[in-house]
Amino acid sequence: MFENSDALSGMSSDDIAASRRFYEGVLGLTVKDEGMGGLISVQLPKGGAVLIYPKDDHQPATFTILNFAVEDIDAVVDLLLAKGVVMERYDGMDQDAKGIMRGKAAGRGPDIAWFTDPAGNILSVLSS
Q: Which of 46, 47, 65, 91 is deepest in the core (most CB within 10 A)?
Protein backbone atom coordinates (compact mmCIF):
# COMPACT_ATOMS: atom_id res chain seq x y z
CA MET A 1 0.00 0.00 0.00
CA PHE A 2 2.72 2.54 0.96
CA GLU A 3 5.78 0.92 -0.63
CA ASN A 4 6.10 3.71 -3.21
CA SER A 5 5.11 6.59 -0.98
CA ASP A 6 7.34 9.27 0.47
CA ALA A 7 6.84 9.34 4.22
CA LEU A 8 7.77 12.18 6.51
CA SER A 9 7.45 12.91 10.15
CA GLY A 10 5.96 16.06 11.61
CA MET A 11 6.13 18.15 14.75
CA SER A 12 4.88 21.52 15.84
CA SER A 13 6.64 24.67 16.97
CA ASP A 14 5.45 27.87 18.57
CA ASP A 15 8.29 29.80 16.86
CA ILE A 16 9.08 28.70 13.31
CA ALA A 17 11.85 31.31 12.89
CA ALA A 18 13.65 30.02 16.00
CA SER A 19 13.20 26.44 14.80
CA ARG A 20 14.70 27.34 11.42
CA ARG A 21 17.70 29.05 13.05
CA PHE A 22 18.28 26.02 15.31
CA TYR A 23 18.04 23.30 12.66
CA GLU A 24 20.08 25.28 10.11
CA GLY A 25 22.50 27.23 12.27
CA VAL A 26 23.11 24.88 15.19
CA LEU A 27 22.52 21.43 13.71
CA GLY A 28 23.71 22.33 10.19
CA LEU A 29 20.73 20.77 8.40
CA THR A 30 19.02 22.05 5.27
CA VAL A 31 15.63 23.66 5.92
CA LYS A 32 13.16 24.32 3.12
CA ASP A 33 10.14 26.63 3.08
CA GLU A 34 7.06 24.64 2.17
CA GLY A 35 5.07 27.79 1.42
CA MET A 36 1.89 26.65 3.12
CA GLY A 37 1.08 28.70 6.19
CA GLY A 38 4.65 28.94 7.45
CA LEU A 39 5.51 25.25 7.17
CA ILE A 40 9.17 24.32 6.92
CA SER A 41 10.79 20.96 6.34
CA VAL A 42 14.08 19.81 7.81
CA GLN A 43 15.90 17.63 5.30
CA LEU A 44 17.47 14.61 6.98
CA PRO A 45 21.04 13.73 5.92
CA LYS A 46 20.31 10.35 4.33
CA GLY A 47 16.88 11.15 2.95
CA GLY A 48 13.47 11.95 4.28
CA ALA A 49 12.29 15.06 6.02
CA VAL A 50 10.59 16.34 9.13
CA LEU A 51 7.78 18.82 8.60
CA ILE A 52 7.57 21.55 11.24
CA TYR A 53 4.33 23.45 11.40
CA PRO A 54 3.35 26.49 13.46
CA LYS A 55 1.04 25.92 16.40
CA ASP A 56 0.29 28.71 18.86
CA ASP A 57 -0.67 26.34 21.68
CA HIS A 58 2.24 23.97 20.98
CA GLN A 59 3.02 21.46 23.72
CA PRO A 60 6.22 19.44 23.22
CA ALA A 61 6.03 15.68 23.50
CA THR A 62 7.36 14.09 26.67
CA PHE A 63 9.41 11.58 24.67
CA THR A 64 12.19 11.70 22.08
CA ILE A 65 10.78 12.55 18.66
CA LEU A 66 13.96 12.67 16.56
CA ASN A 67 17.20 10.69 16.96
CA PHE A 68 20.50 11.31 15.20
CA ALA A 69 22.77 8.24 15.01
CA VAL A 70 26.45 9.25 14.94
CA GLU A 71 29.79 7.44 14.95
CA ASP A 72 31.43 9.58 17.65
CA ILE A 73 28.89 10.69 20.24
CA ASP A 74 31.51 12.43 22.39
CA ALA A 75 32.67 14.63 19.50
CA VAL A 76 29.09 15.52 18.52
CA VAL A 77 28.04 16.31 22.09
CA ASP A 78 31.16 18.49 22.46
CA LEU A 79 30.16 20.41 19.29
CA LEU A 80 26.58 20.82 20.51
CA LEU A 81 27.78 22.06 23.90
CA ALA A 82 30.15 24.53 22.19
CA LYS A 83 27.16 25.90 20.26
CA GLY A 84 25.26 26.49 23.49
CA VAL A 85 23.01 23.44 23.38
CA VAL A 86 22.15 22.15 26.85
CA MET A 87 21.98 18.41 27.33
CA GLU A 88 18.89 17.25 29.18
CA ARG A 89 19.25 15.41 32.49
CA TYR A 90 16.73 12.81 33.57
CA ASP A 91 16.18 11.37 37.03
CA GLY A 92 17.14 7.72 37.18
CA MET A 93 19.37 7.91 34.11
CA ASP A 94 23.06 7.35 34.77
CA GLN A 95 24.48 10.22 32.69
CA ASP A 96 28.09 11.38 32.72
CA ALA A 97 29.36 14.96 33.04
CA LYS A 98 28.52 15.64 29.37
CA GLY A 99 24.99 14.31 29.79
CA ILE A 100 25.66 11.05 27.93
CA MET A 101 24.07 7.87 29.23
CA ARG A 102 26.65 5.14 28.53
CA GLY A 103 24.55 2.14 27.57
CA LYS A 104 27.01 0.32 25.31
CA ALA A 105 29.53 -0.61 27.99
CA ALA A 106 26.76 -1.88 30.26
CA GLY A 107 25.06 -3.84 27.48
CA ARG A 108 21.92 -1.68 27.82
CA GLY A 109 21.63 -0.19 24.36
CA PRO A 110 23.46 2.69 22.71
CA ASP A 111 25.22 5.62 24.31
CA ILE A 112 22.70 8.45 24.11
CA ALA A 113 22.33 12.12 25.05
CA TRP A 114 19.17 14.21 24.86
CA PHE A 115 18.60 17.88 24.07
CA THR A 116 15.68 20.04 22.97
CA ASP A 117 14.96 22.35 20.08
CA PRO A 118 13.65 25.90 20.72
CA ALA A 119 10.07 24.58 20.92
CA GLY A 120 11.01 22.03 23.59
CA ASN A 121 10.81 19.02 21.27
CA ILE A 122 13.14 16.32 22.60
CA LEU A 123 15.91 15.18 20.26
CA SER A 124 18.78 12.80 20.85
CA VAL A 125 22.18 11.95 19.56
CA LEU A 126 23.11 8.29 19.94
CA SER A 127 26.01 6.06 19.05
CA SER A 128 25.60 4.12 15.85
A: 65
Q: In angstroms, rounded to a whole number, what is the distance separating the alpha carbons of residues 128 and 124?
A: 12
Q: 107 pLDDT band (50/70/90 cuts)?
A: confident
Can you give the C-alpha Rg of the chain in angstroms?
15
Average pLDDT of the segment spanning 72-100 = 96
Same domain, 27 and 71: no
- Show Cβ contacts of residue 39 under 8 Å, excluding neighbours closer than 6 positions: 33, 51, 52, 53, 54
Q: Is residue 13 part of a domain?
A: yes
Give the range of the structural domain holding residue 106, as residue numbers without chain letter: 64-127
